[in-house]
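Why does residue order matter? Because the sequence determines the fold. Keep that principle in mind as you read this record.
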Amino acid sequence: MTGAESLAQTLLANGVDVCFANPGTSEMHFVAALDRFPGIRCVLGLQENVVTGAADGYWRMAERPAATLLHCGPGLANGLANLHNARRAQSGIVNIVGDQATHHRALDAPLTADTDGWARGVSAWTRTATGATTVGRDAAAAVEVARQGQIATLIVPADIAWNQEGSIGQALSLPRAPKPTQHAIGNAERVLRSGQPTLLLLGGATLRGTALADAYRIALRTGARIMAQTHNARIERGCGRPSVARVPYRVDQALAELAPFQHLLLVGATPPVSFFAYPGKPGHLYPPECELHVLARPDEDGPFALEQLADALGAPRVPPADAGLDRAVPQGAPLTAFAKTIAALLPPNAVVVNEAGTCGPAIYAASHDSAPHDWLDLTGGAIGAGLPMAVGAAIAAPGRRVLSLQADGSGMYTVQALWTQARERLAVTTVVFSNRTYAILLAELAHVGAQAGPTARNMMTLSDPDISWVRLATGLGVEAARADGCEQLADLLRTSFRSSRPFLIEFCW
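Structure:
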């Protein structure tokens, strides 16, 4: 058995049965091994940032790791931005990165790079395989790390892959997330019983299922408020689920929202800070006099903590009120109108992948009483995540429609993901909000107090020439059409939701 064969069999034996790949010469023995040991679904991405973003989306919905296959250091470098986002989302990924054969490295051939150094910035664990006899064991160790919601990068030199005497490694069964201390739960109970204005700030697994319901009953029992972090890996939303607002992105709005609170209880969340520094504005978004309390760290069992706290408070289980959603399609095409259009037509059990920085917040607000759905956000701020994440989410959740909300500027970073959607015949509807500008940057100009002249504004305009998303999509194998108003948008959404294939709508507003 070659090292490559032991690597493939180890991944499969340990439950890693999807590999998002963009291979090169150094990885050919692993690619060939996949034919001899079927069972791993191989998904080709035309650029490495598509590959890594897809693995992020896969983890968020499947809650188990996929593998990536990347070509040497530069291939890893191409995928670093979405690995950064995945790290912020606490997504588990097994990165397999090819490398020069060990005896060839000294020749400093063109693709020789500091692969290990580049990997460390986004990985919780890195290792370079040193022998075919141990690469299976190395792969098993990588799977163990990824199962904990972390990124593990295994670098496999070409000769390690083709050498003989490989063996299959077995990943250990890892303990569950540690439980928060009883002291933390007791302190949270004391704070909530005080009657002072308190906010429960939720993150991670506390934004799903029974944990979210427990947070809701705590809020009803005590008068506390619940909110989510600004950027979250996944939130369960829609009819029958508690409506959770997020801490606003804009500093002034966030400061106003959090100003009334004397206590901030962190549950799987980190203290809220501004995305950037702004002249004359604080970095922390909560009042200086506000006391911070940790009920559960992000690495602890937040759902357990909320259940224990709710029971300690004697909070009854009450289903959230259904406010009822107006499903009539609004007229015209302002932001609120098309947000309500999308919210009204969202199919049951959909997965929404949001990378629409300007339009996304309005759609999020409008969809709190849509059909039940999951909402996935850009977590690390590195743009180009939306289209690849939609690929991974669709593969992880077959039978569910994925709605990808995509800004036009960030979509151009990883437009190749549309080809993968077509090739894999994925049920993804992409709505590209085509305003032909980096609209969020135009807003940021004002927030940082900078004065924009013709040169600055020209750098934020995506026209001359205009980008045709319909032509781009059809050229990559995805059916597409343009909508200029809410009625057209609604018709195209309905059409796409009835299909099992990918569809793109260029919405011009």
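The two ends are 58 Å apart (CA to CA).
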